[in-house]
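#struct-queue
[09:14] JT: dropping the first one here, sequence first, then the structure tokens:
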Amino acid sequence: MLREAMYTTIQTLFDKGYNKTQIAEMLEIDRGTVRNVLKKIENGEEIKRKNVASILDPYKEIIHIKIQQELSAMRIYQDISEETGYTGSYDTIKKYVKKYKDSNSRVYMVNTTLPGEEAQVDFGYVGKIPNPSGDIKKAWVFCMILSYSRLMYCEIVFNQEVRTFIKCHENAFRYFGGVTETVKIDNLKAAILEANFYEPIYQREYEAFNKYYGFLSIPCRVRTPTDKAKIESGVKYVKNNFFKGRSFNSYEEYKKGLSNWLENRCNSRIHGTTKRIPKEVFQEKEKQTLRSINPKGYDFGIWTTRKVNVNCHISYDSNFYSVPYKNIGEDVTLKISDKLIKIYSHYELIATHIKIEGKGLFSTNNIHYPEYKVKTKTQLQYEYRQKMLEIGPSALEFFDKVLDKNQNHWGKPIYGVLKLKDKFGSDIVEKACKRALAFGSIKYQTLKNICEKGIYEQPTDTGVSLISKAENDIHRPLSEYANLLSLKEVR
């Protein structure tokens, strides 16, 4: 199939008076090809451009993902060369990345929200000011804005750590009197560990915090100002309208001044976009839609990881705490607070324990074990008694005598009897139990010999007393046991 340019060349030469043979010789193509092209042109057929495969076709999906991760063209080239065996040039990657970015950066949608649906948060650097101790330190302003009413909360901070970030959230919720359904956050290190729009890895403490207050946090895409336009404008406004050109002598003066500015200027002016006063819109339409605040503040803790041992416990501070048996061998996450230890698996709470005072102690919840591991002695006795009853009345009597003789070590012999049933059948084991009981024996080995040697049908009436005359002694004399175990015929 010829390229579009070749069709145009053939038509141009033909229009200039060259015949088919001359055109074929000039272009070094077959004369029949020239004839077919001229025929298509004469019939008015549309000449379509041939779709030429690109060396990037197998890699475009990967390239798109890496562009979303804000990787440079050089980094994308290096990654796909190492990971996929791409053999093309860097320039090809560079041109495609530029073309893709240009084609996806022109159109934006207006993000509208319902009352109580969304808040946006961000930090803005405001220079060096006095901290509560009087030292001059770098400072930021934390801002949260309600996307519907544009009501805003601001607070001066001196770091962007997780605890500060969460405390600012709580203060904002109390200022608004409630919690929105979602909070849109910038890709701050305090909340987001990896800036990936599709699978953000939330900072563990912040993830626990938003679950505690019942809101969903949504990270903004990197370098996409339209995702957080409201808070971008809000931070810019507070920096230019309050901080710029103002200087106070102490942190308390800054704090008081910012509070007055929020109340009397920021939230009381006619907003430039909505053309309404944020405070009025909030009172009329948004305040009642907010979710109620948890009256007890969020409990910060220490986070660490432990591996679940085969005994269904993890170790912390020389004490042991149980975990569901299905998590054996797994690395789980612990949140340690003053009184509680909460254990998580992939952000799901799987166990809670009261923190133990002391060393070498266990906190065990029996539901963390398999059911068969936590049955009571009575339950086990009942289950095995029913199994022996299914064999027959003599087997049941055998069980009762074994249990009566030794309350704590009846399990192994009875388990052995049930294994004999699996091998020989209930009928033979029932007869073997009857014969062993007739000779006063309640030993598993006696039953096994009777079954294996097939003497369960032999008579038991020998005219000789088989039971020792000693009071409460159900065993036969040793000579008679010897005869029984050696399987000599009893006459």
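[09:21] JT: and here's the second one, same format:
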Amino acid sequence: MKIFYCSNCQAQIFFHNYICNNCQHPVGYVPALETMMTFKKTEKGWQSLDENGLYFKACKNYQDYHVCNWMIDIHENTDLCESCKLTTVIPDLHEEKNIEYWAKLETAKRRFLYMTQRLKIFPRAKKNPDDHLGLSFQFLVPTDDQPVLTGHANGLITLNAFEADTVYRETTRISMGENYRTLLGHFRHESGHFYFDTLVQNSKWIDEFRQLFGDERIDYADSLKHYYENGAQENWQENYISAYATSHPWEDWAESWAHYLHMISTLDTAFYTGMSIQSQHPNNPELKFKDCPVCSADFTLTIKNWFALSYSLNALNRSMGLSDAYPFTLSDKVINKLHFIHQILLENINKKSIDTMNGFTWKN
């Protein structure tokens, strides 16, 4: 993620901020400009405090509930920002705890959407239930009579709102035998199913997909049943990023997609913070950037930098008595899968003009 600064006092502001912690001016993210901005409230609207002095209005969920910090052009005929438009169902706000869950879910969703902007695959909202090229989210609270399963179906991503509760999520992580489970990870994984449908299925990439991930046409329900009854195959680490990835080619793709986003987003932040790692031993990896890692043409360097960064992050965490920040191993076959995802996105991001494909509209 890029580094943002307050245009009033030049202090650093963060993607999730509502105010500048130094000068106390309101701040917000302007998706059309892909940047955080500082504002003063006027009768005409929220005026940016940069040299342009542009006017915006805050998303309704910013003003009413403080669960969003995205801004809207003053002339737009809408009360919801580009992120909040994608959420169609939220928890019952009469329950105070649900506002906290909703806020955490939206925060994770916006961070996920930020990278889709950088990759030029920001989704549009579904026009109707049968519109498989649009994407929508629903955040549901389970009850004793109606459990909620996190998942994706035809462009609708459902998340169990209890995943926003740290204790619930950690308990589920342990019971499921997972070494990593986050709200942001849920968005990245479930979006993988959506982007498979829109970027890979019925495209020129499908044959190569089947060579790398397997034939997705095998029965999904039977595959999941076999996985939950028998677990992952022996030595799964040689071919898959996680045990769950072994259950079906769709899940292998979704897990690999999520890990690609983990990797690129973290490297992107490292790049913009000016991080580098100079090895103190010839056998240790180094972190050196030639350019921004978001769809860099040099994927080999991207992987080398990821090894260096994740190795160092894990070592630092261990020094503080914490679990590994990135508790995964990338085999050669997993790297090939990540490279495949990279190639698809690189082709998209390198388009030279305004274009539309599979429901996405982007501009370089």
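[09:30] RK: nice, looked through the second one.
[09:31] RK: The chain is about 40% helix and 15% strand.
[09:31] JT: good to know. The chain has two domains: 4-80, 87-362.
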